[in-house]
Specification:
This protein is an alpha+beta fold. The chain folds into 4 domains: about 30-140, Jelly Rolls, CATH 2.60.120.260; about 145-450, Glycosyltransferase, CATH 1.50.10.10; about 455-565, Maltose phosphorylase, domain 3; about 585-729, Jelly Rolls (Sandwich), CATH 2.60.120.260. About 25% of the residues lie in helices and about 30% in strands. It is built from 14 helices and 35 strands. Strands 1, 2, 3, 4, 5, 6, 7 and 8 form an 8-stranded antiparallel β-sheet that branches. Helix 12 (about 375-385) packs antiparallel against helix 13 (about 390-400). The radius of gyration is 28 Å and the shape is globular.
Amino acid sequence: MFKHLALIITLVASTLLADEGTGTNSALAPGIKDYEQKEYVRVSKDLPHSESAPWKLVCTIPYNCHFQPWIEVEAEAGKVISFNSTNPLVLYLTKTESYTTRAGLQDYEAMNWVSGEGAIYTIPAGVKVRAVKYRETGYDTTFAGSFESNDSDYNTLWRKGARTAYICMRDHFYDCPDRERVGFWGDGTPELNQCFYAFDTKSHGLCRELVLRKLEPKFYPGQHLEFLGDYGLWFYYLQTGDLESMKAIYEPTKNFLFDTYKFGNKRTWFDWGKENKDTAVIETCFYYNCLGTLKKIALATGHEADVSVIDEKLAGIRKTFDSQYWKDGYYISDQVPAPDDRANAMAVNCGLASRDKWAAIYDNVLTKNFYSSCFFDRWVFEALCTMGKQEYALLRMQERYKTMIPCTFTTLWEHYDRWWASRIDAFDEGSSLNHGWNPPVILLSQTIAGISPEAPGWSTYHVLPKEAFLTAIKVVVPSIKGNVTVDLKKTASEYSLALTSPADTTAIVGIPKGSFIKLDEIKVNDTTIWKGSFSAGVSGVTWNGEDADYVKFNVAPGVWKFAGLGVLPMTSPKAMPAKPAPECVLEKKGWVATASVPDSTFLFSGAKISIDGSAANAIDGDHWTGWRDMTKLQYPGQWLQVDMQKDQEFNKVILDNTWAQWDTPVGYSVTVSKDGTTWSEPIATGPGHAGITTIRFPVQHARYLRITQTGTDATYHWSVYELDVCQEK
């Protein structure tokens, strides 16, 4: 299930999986930053605190990070305290740590870093916890880039994408920091890409490590193809201008493409997603793209003698590609029964699909089939934007990430909807909730904002927005020449683009024709420079040309304000996200949760890790821990109840089962009580919703609240990973 677990176990001992999680804060590896000890956002008990029986303290961190828990206690000698992340996936690699007390006042910090959004301490009876903190560590880089638009859905995706990219960085790029920490080339490709749009230049060292890493032909060779072309090697070179690295990798890359890579290898992997993978078309497209990149590197590094051989290989693929794979309005091989969105997108991206085929690919495949995972959707998105369908690309992105956008997790997941779609269609509880292959950062900053280098090292770059229905975008790209800042705003009569361009660069700025019903005039710094044709007159701005999509200008370093005047459409096919309603979530410390079944544990995923599913987890403030009724599948009459210890006023309940996405209640009924014995008639009923179920009702005054599950499910259990009671104004 997890990219062939046996191989991963082997890799743990290899150079691809460095031995992290054994260092202490006093001996951090080079390139790792110590953010020092921090206060938790919330602790589940007011401190100091002790109990006469063993108890748990759950502590919340503001975002997913690498951390080491710290504790200060008063205790007798010989008491064993244990602590770990609330993220159960860390147990794949990192055992729960423990500390045996000595007599008196003492403190202790965990030796191993773990990842997650919270810590859980298991405290023996009689031990008084005086204070808890955590030490965050992480790769030594800063969040230097940014993206903000008028639509908060995309802002959330960019922000969560950047946090996800960061938590998957340490000694190398991880696929995830909890379950595996493997340096897959496929995962590393979008992780490298996002470094140049989210982080400062210190992150480039990790990118260079991936570029120079020795190729492993038996280690998912298809992932190598995803990296050795425009999306990995050439992307890195354009961003950095690091010619020495291109010289170093040229011969190994050529040997891999010419001699090592074999088509049809059973270990070739390009994507999870749904099983309808047209590998024959996909690998041909990526191989063609890699050859094109090899040619560009050959010309840059003095290997011109190889160009004729590369050209011959490129021409051979072009000659047979359509005759082999173009059938009935899309590309398809005999490996699959239906056209694959991944394969057809790559045909567009690599240039093998001629422009006259784009409309058919869009109509027949990209708007109908959704086989790609969140990893490969990057290339579907880029193909749509290449075809001028950026409006639909943004709509598709929002639809596919619809459960990740509103959820409480600060990172993006391995699978859409936590749904394992290869070979088996089912919820995958073992998939990571912080997977580095998610691409929103690169897609929004580079493709939608349209900011990308054209020459190595950003000596020339372009600003060619594809903003579609977005009416405002402000983006900062931390290039090696300095920050590139673009502030774009649209009204019914003006397209405003403000640019701050760093020294030693030439920017190509394009005003997109497709954003207008009618474009009359273009000004820069309040001077007209185009009115059907270019007119010189502004020092530092020259004519670059006009094509079907843009009116373009060359711009010297400095601060510039472009304004396209005319008539612009201001309608949008996407509803704006609702603004969060002001609300008061009641404090849950001291509350007691009980359920219709006794507290129990469940075996987590294929690793058979025992996880606590007690009712108390549903009100501990942590969305990674929860209550699960594992006695049998959903059935009418299951209930979860909270005693709020006193009468409270409330009118909303939120049931969050995002961690167990498909354990949402088929139906619910809400009742309240003042004494726990006499219960009201249902104050709200309805169906559950995947991930988060929000229940509103008239204002209640009660001490007890009970949620009863009213439906039947033939596949899934019922879970509540966090229950919030709110007084919404």
